[in-house]
Amino acid sequence: MGPAERAMALIRAGIAAADPGAAVARGMADVLANPPGAGGRWQVIALGKAARAMAEAALAALPGAEALVVTNAGNDTPLTGARVMRAGHPQPDAEGAAAAAEVIARLGAAGPQDRVLALISGGGSAMLPAPAEGMTLSDKQAVNRLLLASGADISQVNLIRQGLSRLKGGGWLRLSGAPVTALILSDVP
């Protein structure tokens, strides 16, 4: 195998390793090891640019699970067994705020016998604006514009976003009545 063929083989292997659906499929054995309790159900909440592909893989392993997919335009094609909601990226928008309200409602409706599977991928932080107490969506949008223009790196931006959100920085765990398992596919911790 020549250098060009070897390079292409490495590129194909890298793309296959990063496939969102395949990554979730690989992680499902650990998820399935902690099933819902008697009378419980799976609630799948997928968020980010790869949310739809991740949810599709999870639903294949969890027949009958309820699923919500929050993703950006272009990745928001319908998915059997899931409600797909569009959200703005990189600027939070009203569609994302509606999706955040739906996530909060689903987390709050989950009981201790249920299980929540959080599938989180890149772009999710901007897509799910749930302003902290005393803030509005307009406030979050203004802060986000300033952050994006500030030259701060994404880790710094996300740290500030966490402090201004009901969902980020552990908010899912605080709001959920059920245990939450997360599978995260992102280049930003």
Polypeptide structure, described:
By secondary structure, this protein is an alpha/beta fold. Strand 1 (42-47), helix 3 (51-61) and strand 2 (66-71) form a beta-alpha-beta unit. The chain has helices spanning 3-17, 20-32, 51-61, 94-109, 124-127, 137-149, 154-163, 171-175; strands at 42-47, 66-71, 82-86, 115-121, 180-185. The N and C termini lie far apart (37 Å). The mean pLDDT is 92. The chain is built from eight helices and five strands, in the order ααβαββαβααααβ. The longest helix has 16 residues, at 94-109. The chain has a five-stranded parallel β-sheet, with helices on both faces. Helix 2 (20-32) runs parallel beside helix 3.
Mean pLDDT: 92
Order of strands, main sheet, comes to: 3-2-1-4-5
Radius of gyration: 18 Å
Q: Could you state the order of secondary-structure elements as H and E?
A: HHEHEEHEHHHHE
Apparent shape: globular
Structural class: alpha/beta
Proportion of beta-strand residues = 15-25%
Give start-end ranges of low-pLDDT stretches.
none
Number of helices: 8
Oligomer: single chain
Main beta-sheet strand count, sense and barrel state = 5 strands, parallel
Straight-line distance between termini: 37 Å
